[in-house]
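Sequence in, structure out. First:
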Amino acid sequence: MDVSTRDELEHHVEAEQRVTPLELFFDLVFVFGLTQVTSLMSADPTWSGLARGMLVLAALWWAWAAYAWLTNTIDPDEGAARLAVFGAMAAMLIVGLAAPGAFDDDALLFGGAYSRFGCCTSSCTPSRPTTRTYVARSCGSLRPRSSPPD
């Protein structure tokens, strides 16, 4: 590898990003929500109970994936983003508490808290050009490469 190629590679290497204690605590809130799904499923050990549990599990998994992407895109320990993360964490704690009754008495609580989580998460989502740039970089390897000239 020649010097210019090595310099280009070093230039593109990003600084290592460490997981913050706030992110780890938020992950524990998600784990609590996931354990509550087992309460939902054990209360109704039928195929419909399994389907309900899988729906709640899918909602929690989707929320966690969105949160993980977001905290890799922004710094969750700075300014308003930190407040939004705390708001989303509180909402997800309520979602976890309401998960066992998500199809019964706690359905409104579950849905309202899940909606609040979405609002808190979207309040600190990067602007569209930044998001487009991130997606373009992530999917850049999916573009067909032109073949070298003969």
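Second:
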Amino acid sequence: MGLELVRASTADALTITGISRRSFHSDVEVGSKEKTGPPGYMSVPFYTKMAKSNHLFKLVDDGLIVGGAILFLKEEELNIGRIFIAPEHFRKGYGSFMMNEIETLFPGVKEYTLDTPVWNIRTNSFYSKMGYTEIKRDNEFVFYSKLRDEYIISHLSSKYNIRRLSMEDIPQAVALCEKNTLYYEYCPPFVSEQSIRDDMNALPPGKTVTDKYYVGFYDGKRLVAVLDLIMSFPDKTTAFIGFFMTHAELQNRGMGSGIIEELCGALSQIGMKEVRLCWVKGNPQAEHFWHKNGFKETGATNVTEAYTAIVARKELI
């Protein structure tokens, strides 16, 4: 049977209440001043009510209940009211499994939301690791949101079809990039299948694959642009463009600027406040393009053996 997340019944309420009480009381180890928890955390009637209204879920390991969750679905938004694991099963990956299963159980959801106490160093670290972005906080709680990948990608452009590029797409990406010879004069080495493969897997410090969008823009079946985008880097409300290149035959027609304009608008809508990127010092084409699209030098540079990169930013409205 293994590990699974399923709806709980009223018959499970007593067991789930006991796990909930022990789990939330363990928060004294991570910042809580006393053994307490959210409303109803040790109330059998509360969890019975949640089960009757189909909001209660149980995490089961070979038939044994080891955790629980309360979930509220409203149209295309799912609020994760709480999740909890029996303390004896901490650090076994059960929390990560539960969060991933929640997304699997609700494939039509576009946004997942939750909140957690400001003082809870364990849960704040955990939700950030799971790809959730802080959207606001008050004196008591930090509020998080996570958009489904497909939703983010589909909103990056209204004109082109966008999808993540896979290993099968590498030859097509190389064919697009190799026509842009000026770029590689300033930013060696010249493109190859291995360099594209390396770019697909490259991550800045502290980021995971859930933060990276190495995508292609398609006009029909034709690949017209490649974008490497890192969400929430170097801070939570900044997106970083690691690479952007358009098809050489389609340049100087406003296509690249149109893509960047829509990209910035989409990033603003999902809570990003700024976009950063780099261009190689001395590359007139890159400097002109990014200036034209509202990016300004920060004054910082990244120096490598092959070139110096100019760091630039654009504040989003």
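Remark: The first strand starts at residue 3 and ends at 7.
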